[in-house]
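pipeline: protein-struct stage 2 | run 1193 | M20/M25/M40 family metallo-hydrolase
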Amino acid sequence: MELLRQLYKVHSPSGNEKAMKRFVRKYIRRHIPDVKIRTDRKGNLYIIKGVAETYPCIAAHLDQVQREHSKDFTLIETKGLIFGYSPRSRKQEGLGADDKNGIWIALKCLEKYDTLKVVFFVEEETGCQGSNQADMDFFMDCRFVIQPDRRGYKDLITSIGWMELCSDEFLKASGYESFSYKTTEGLMTDILALKERGLEISCINLSCGYYEPHTDNEFTVKKDLLNCLKLVEHIIENCTDIYLHSCLDMKCLMEADEYETARDEVFEILGGDDTLGFEDIYQFLKPYFPNLTRNDFIRIYLEYYNPESEESEDIWETGSINDKV
């Protein structure tokens, strides 16, 4: 675990990841031969080891939320737990295990395997700014992307919001259940940004053993981190196909389903009180249907009152909708 301890001691707040990038480059030069590293304008790191027709790919982010990192920051290990501590102030300080645990897994895999791609993104914690400006050509010969960047020990994220991330074929091949993982929904992270930008291979996000992220009480359970590493290794060794997955068509279907659900809600509300104006309906329901536009709600509102009338069609086509809603 010496590498993990070294990572925890590097302070890498969002927007100032230089120290972590220096550490990663230096570690690779000293310990992992035959690796190519490049960066882009945003500061993301792209790493390729070996030559192959297709590569497994691991993603992690270089930044952490915690801004405080005392000069006397030290690590405490007890009963399989690791947490940060400042003796001078006598209080805990966050490890940045979100996502230094993911960096650790990526570097361990780079050490172990002959062919692998790794990408380290900057500024994930401030809105996935690095991945939103990533070089998408880097992923053209990847079989899948794994991002170890989730609290806890058992979550395998297969969808975020309305976006599906991976294929059933990939999930079946991954063997995740043997490692006590369960599929579930997650929150914004870099693989979501990649999928939204059109990445058409399977992606997953894995719990990697950190708890209470984004706080000074953050800690890592070593056995949970090691179990995540074992699952990642299992996937790299056994998932040798290209696991294609396009979420665009699925997203359109989901948006269509959301429209129909919103339509039912508007009709039910107006059926109970038809004195409600459009703004009343729109302001009430918009938070529940984030993928629908104002125009979507206008269409539904007009359809309720007179869906077959020529007047409704004229209102829409002439742009005089503001006179009615």
